[in-house]
Amino acid sequence: MTGEGAHGGTIRTEAVMGTLVSIHVVRADVIGHGMDGSVDAAIDRAFGWFHEIEARCTRFSPQSELMQLSAHPGVAVPASAILYEAVHFALMVAEESNGAFDPTVGHQMESRGFNREHRTGEIVRTAIRSDEGVSYRDVQLDPDRRAITLLRPLTLDLGAVAKGLAVDAAARELEPFQDFAIDAGGDLYLGGSNPQGEPWCVGIRHPRNADQVIDRLHVSNQAVCTSGDYERKAPDGGSHILDPRTGRSPDTVASATVVASGAMLADALATAAFVLGPDDGIQLLDRLGVDGMILTPDLKRYETRGLCRVA
């Protein structure tokens, strides 16, 4: 769907990666170059990244590059630049978070009921009987050959990485227009200024009242991603966020919001901070030089010092 924004510019929305992705370019010309009319082509390329990255990184299609990798444990499988980058980044966050973030939870997520392809509704089941004891240390990278080896049978879940990677790739396509917004199911990248020429205002959802915001942030040329226990529920009532170290949904955090230079970083760290809990989560964000806010189930706030909220 394409249309004119309420304050001008161009807005297009597509269903991809299990969510609705909306792109808003405030002005249709490249600042300083007068390339009127190029905005549609740039938005086409931006959405192209979402479709390409989903095709390579989803665990919900047996034909995806990710699932083809999972079908060959113990073998060094050459990977595309997209899949290699996603896995490499996921492993770095796993190391930084001491395993609170771990991309090898795919089979656990499948076992908890998160195994339905969003477009067809088809149930996806892997042949893995058990992945007990697997961790990110069972994934080996060969940068010279750009190959990935799964040392044990396991399924990777890149859900907290791939969407952010797509948002960042789309943002690079839109950078010449300076002022734009990308919203991929709540994973945001806000470039430049809003239609009023001010920093973008981002509302942080109240974790217990869906129709309310609990805070507002000013953001420019940054990504904002939130992980919340309200987003998706497993049949057992737990959230879709899993502590890889215990196999259970954490219960000390209601939502974790991260503001960072890119959406892949913000998305992964929001998940890691959620799992780590308020104190350790904020320590991780501080150590890595990003800003964020963690809300507990009783709405107690923990936040970094540099968070730029709306006055």
| Biggest β-sheet description | 9 strands, antiparallel
- How far apart, in Å, are the first and last alpha carbons? 34 Å
Order of strands across the biggest sheet?
1-2-3-7-8-11-12-13-14
Number of helices: 7
Just give the CATH class of one domain. Mainly Alpha
Structural class: alpha+beta
Taking pLDDT < 50 over at least 5 consecutive residues as the criterion, the unreliable ranges are 1-6
**Strand runs, count:** 14
Helical percentage: 25-40%
SSE blueprint and pairings:
Blueprint lengths: L1 E3 L5 E7 L2 E7 L13 H19 L7 H6 L6 E2 L2 H16 L9 H6 L27 E4 L4 E4 L8 H16 L5 E5 L2 E5 L8 E6 L7 E7 L2 E7 L26 E6 L2 H14 L1 H11 L2 E5 L5 E3 L8
Antiparallel strand pairs: 1-2, 2-3, 3-7, 4-6, 5-6, 7-8, 8-11, 9-10, 11-12, 12-13, 13-14
Helix pairs in contact: 1-5, 3-5, 5-6, 6-7
Can you offer a commentary on this structure?
The protein has a domain at 60-157: T-fold. It is globular. Residues 1-6 have low confidence and may be disordered. The strands form three sheets. The chain has a nine-stranded antiparallel β-sheet with strand order 1-2-3-7-8-11-12-13-14, covered by helices on one side. It has a three-stranded antiparallel β-sheet with strand order 4-6-5, covered by helices on one side. Strands 9-10 form a two-stranded antiparallel sheet. The protein contains seven helices and 14 strands. A hairpin with a 7-residue loop joins strand 9 and strand 10 (213-219). Helix content is 28%, strand content 23%. The protein has helices at 39-57, 65-70, 81-96, 106-111, 159-174, 263-276, 278-288; strands spanning 2-4, 10-16, 19-25, 77-78, 139-142, 147-150, 180-184, 187-191, 200-205, 213-219, 222-228, 255-260, 291-295, 301-303. The chain is an alpha+beta fold and 311 residues long. Helix 1 (39-57) runs antiparallel to helix 5 and helix 5 packs antiparallel against helix 6 (263-276).
